[in-house]
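USER: For my understanding, would you kindly supply a protein sequence with its structure tokens?

ASSISTANT:
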Amino acid sequence: MSSAEIPLATNAATPLALSTWNARAGATLERVLPAEDDPPSALSRAMRYAVLGGGKRLRPVLVYTAGTACGADPQRLDSAAAAVEIIHAYSLVHDDLPAMDDDALRRGRPTCHVAFGEAMAILAGDALQALAFEVLAGDALLAAEPALHVAMLRTLAAACGAHGMAGGQAFDLAAVGQRLTPAELERMHVYKTGALIRASVRLGALAAGCSDAQRLAALERYGHCIGLAFQIRDDILDVEGDSATIGKTAGKDVAADKPTYPAILGMEGTKAHLADLTAQAIALITPLGAPFTPLADLARFVAERTS
């Protein structure tokens, strides 16, 4: 089954942009990933397993939605969209390892290390991170604008590093069994979850050649709001969802004694915070005009999703 044929887990409120751009991202990922029989074939299979296992592909959808709203041809967005999803997949492979979050279920099926062994999962994550930068660096359309191209590569790199996902995971590991303040919890998720979501919005705008500082600032803040909203919804689903629907082990964070928004703010406070962040995101997008409406729809989807 190709990635374009993998059904998208959605609900009635799924924006059209999500399904449309998800399919384009899937086709691009099929093209840039190694074939299953490319040597070393075990590594190639593990890489494909990690990336092509379904999912919402919210991050590439944000690249496409922000980029086209800013006037970009979708062809200018393909490499960035593929790169952010590959980075996301690599981070999940490593986060699921026994030394990290020790998860056995991801997107409704065994995690990469369960399916291929820990050593191969580590290698698959390493290779995927490298592939993401290879794909973005090799984009011939962007290469014609070297300063822009480098800015996009730096944006992606920053989202992965010590002040991005890696740093967020370090905060996460250190927080187990601890009682964090709301500000400390937010910092952790601004790094771990929010950084790549913000980068996805920014990459789309940059690829479109957007140089309007006010518009970029609004999009950056929008990315911040929906990045936190995404994590808060995850925390709610960990309590209220079931494993079959959410595609991963429900109740895992509570069982692992991890600090979560419901644990710190209570469920009522958590849902109020989610509603506030969603309203902020929509308020930031509305003044930008009709082409940006799909970003507001995505903010609502993030807040209302069931998986």
Remarks:
- The beta strands are 105-106, 109-110.
- The chain has a mean pLDDT of 91.
- The chain has one domain: 9-304.
- The two ends are 22 Å apart (CA to CA).
